[in-house]
Amino acid sequence: MPVFFLPPRSITPPTVSVTGDLLTHLRDSLRIEVGETLLVADGADRRYRIEITAITKQLMTGHVIDVIPRPARRAPSLILGQALVKGEKMDWVIQKTTELGVHTIIPVQSRQSIVQLKPDRIGTQTARWKRIALEAAQQSEQWQVPTIAAPLSLSSHLTQKPAHSLALILTERRDHASTLANMALPASPETSILVLVGPEGGWTEEEVATAEGAGYVPLTLGPKILRAETAAITAIGILQHRLGELG
């Protein structure tokens, strides 16, 4: 069953209120009726199984019949720094890495990014990415919707590396670079793993060197050269498998 995210102010046990776009989706698209049950979440530590008690044009209300606390985290959180890629490819990365359980996605403007976001489009585009992440988190029953940061230049991103994190940058054609299969990973849920993935044209040597100087460890996914969007999804999938969160 999909889980639908609500702002905390809409959840006041034993009553839950649904308005806005989600109300329209549940009522008109999913044809939810009085008496049916739904799973809703506050985006933090609890899910609520509710029974729908009333539906109007402006409001859907439900009664809480079960509260499900979030299990304790067992593994580091994952942060994806994704260099901007064209159109639907970026949408695909956000959707699929959300399904895989990434915690944060940071769009990065790199030197060889084909996409160059105009300042007056950043707000609109970021809002679109947030909607994609929300829908993917609901469909895949995540406990929270990943944070979608505003796009940053690579230089700005490199100065904001979180504390207590392992920072990685995916590269290609490096014979002696580590791989995700053999790299030592942190185990504590208090830590994070940040992985930077380049654009269609890859990182420049200068960008990789700058990242290494900022504490990023270069690594590869092996001898195959993957498309940018494939590399991002593959890297997050491998990390989740090694951390015991997938497979």
CATH architecture of the largest domain: 3-Layer(aba) Sandwich
Low-confidence stretches: none
Give the DSSP E fraction (strand runs of 2 or more residues). Answer: 25-35%
Please identify the structural class as seen in this structure.
alpha/beta
State the CATH class of the largest domain: Alpha Beta
End-to-end Cα distance:
20 Å
- The gyration radius over C-alpha positions equals 20 Å
User: For this structure, what is the CATH homologous superfamily of the largest domain?
Assistant: SPOUT methyltransferase, trefoil knot domain
What fraction, in percent, of the residue positions are helical? 25-40%
How many beta-strand runs?
14
Number of domains: 2
Topology pattern, helix = H, strand = E:
EEEHEEEEHEHEEHEEEHEH
Biggest β-sheet: count, sense, barrel? 8 strands, parallel
Shape: elongated
From the 3D structure, determine the CATH topology of the largest domain: Alpha/beta knot
Characterise the protein shown here.
The chain is of the alpha/beta class and 247 residues long. The protein has 2 domains: 3-69, Ribosomal Protein L25, Chain P (Beta Barrel), CATH 2.40.240.20; 77-242, Alpha/beta knot, CATH 3.40.1280. It is 28% helix and 28% strand. It is built from 6 helices and 14 strands. The protein has helices spanning 20-29, 87-99, 122-139, 154-158, 205-213, 228-242, and strands at 3-5, 11-12, 15-18, 37-41, 46-55, 60-69, 77-83, 104-109, 147-148, 152-153, 165-170, 178-179, 192-197, 217-220. Strands 7, 8, 9, 10, 11, 12, 13 and 14 form an 8-stranded parallel beta sheet that branches. A 6-stranded mixed beta sheet has the order 1-4-5-6-3-2. The longest helix has 18 residues, at 122-139. The model has no long low-confidence stretch (mean pLDDT 92).
